[in-house]
Amino acid sequence: MAPAAEDRSPVHRTCTRVRYPETDRMGVAYHAHYLVWFELGRTEMMRAIGAPYGELEDEAGILFPVIEAGARYLRPARYDDVVAIDTTVRAVGGARVRFEYALSREADGERLATGFTEHASVGRDGRPTRLPAELRERLEETREGE
Amino acid sequence: MAPAAEDRSPVHRTCTRVRYPETDRMGVAYHAHYLVWFELGRTEMMRAIGAPYGELEDEAGILFPVIEAGARYLRPARYDDVVAIDTTVRAVGGARVRFEYALSREADGERLATGFTEHASVGRDGRPTRLPAELRERLEETREGE
Amino acid sequence: MAPAAEDRSPVHRTCTRVRYPETDRMGVAYHAHYLVWFELGRTEMMRAIGAPYGELEDEAGILFPVIEAGARYLRPARYDDVVAIDTTVRAVGGARVRFEYALSREADGERLATGFTEHASVGRDGRPTRLPAELRERLEETREGE
Amino acid sequence: MAPAAEDRSPVHRTCTRVRYPETDRMGVAYHAHYLVWFELGRTEMMRAIGAPYGELEDEAGILFPVIEAGARYLRPARYDDVVAIDTTVRAVGGARVRFEYALSREADGERLATGFTEHASVGRDGRPTRLPAELRERLEETREGE
Predict the structure, then answer these.
(1) Mind listing the pLDDT tens digit for each residue in D24-35?
(2) Would you call C21 an interface residue with chain B, using a CB distance cutoff of 8 Å?
(3) Residue A146 is assigned to a structural domain of this protein
(4) Is ipTM over 0.95?
(5) Which single residue of A29, A96, A131, B45 has CA 20 to 30 Å from D50?
């Protein structure tokens, strides 16, 4: 549970398996679910750096609503595929965080999609609030190129 | 939107169209979504009797968590089918409500599924709380056989 | 069901109500569901111009997988809000279609989000295929500025 | 990943973590998602006994649509909780399978829910078809009490 050395590397990987209800009648994963997988990626990255998202909400009263999101779909993900989600923190402002994602099929490494989410940092009252200094440091440590 | 007289009838009907992401790779609606359609049924029934669920939560602080649910699947619902949801209140105790549902394809009336949900009435603290008298009366007025 | 004159206007509007399971513990609609609402928008636009998406798949064997999607979230949508989805066709290439969306709260017209999806036109074999001429004409007729 | 001996035991356990979009504005997991977790349970059980569900569909052309499902909700599952899903095969007829599920919070073992799904075994044409003998044997080996 404590962050291993590799968790501080620029890219954090977590995996998820495509669930039956995530497929649609085209036979492949429905595109909106990729945004859920992006969330799994940043959730596990934040847990790995010692800042579980649930605790931020419950204890620090800080929420990270998504203010922008985007995805490019390169190849379909299929039922029961294990999808590897590589997450990177790309920019950390005073009250902003941007995560970037690269999804690939774990079995053969084929790139499936790329995407990003941008988040505001707000308090329980919905107002912008600066990221706690400690969290900002931890996120910056994971930034690509560091 | 709906005539008042009809809203007090034993059965309340609302409709929904099967969404693309509600289908799975079997080509039909995934079974868990039927529970969501059940919710649409009771939501619109409660709105019709003048007790919108959102107001109950926000103003009266009363929640209706599902404590039991069941469904029988008779025929598949397909993409873009209009599903008619017929909702009935079956029993109203002091702090309990049971809704029953019958789903059919609107185009030809074919029965697709039946089901039920049973709800506790709890306050914001999670403790059982009696249904407000006025709500109980309204629900009882809609009960089958009345 | 037949397309009215206004359906040929540059922007097509359809509405959806925020469902309980579309909310999350932040108390607002989860961001991935907006992509589902975008789909509702283009689905109803295509129905309005006489080219229901389901028929395209079933009869013409043409699929429109999403190859890129993006959304900007301006204000939260809340449970039971009626969300108006305004859909526009922005560009139609030989085997590409781009839809743009503007979401607003129907009650007060407040803008909630904007977004887009870009689609490839592929056959059952997954290969790019030109849009049927008739569909292209119908989509072009709805293009903004026409 | 799992020891073979244990996989043949009466109960098969798999775990899932409650995702943010699985919560609703009540702050707990929405009840319909439990049916998805049930599916995770039977999927991993079938993989463990050497009969991955995806292969059954793709290679043997056998589908297991749900014909009945039920759940009792005992305690709420919360965001980020690890939910342990214990799956048992309860009855195996010629063209029927019934799975039973018990869900608990992994952290403290608290029982969260119980439920079942009953499935028909059908071919690609939608007609009932007998379970392949080998699969039936494997499922029977896992039956409770054996």
Answers:
(1) 999 999 999 999
(2) yes
(3) no
(4) no
(5) A29
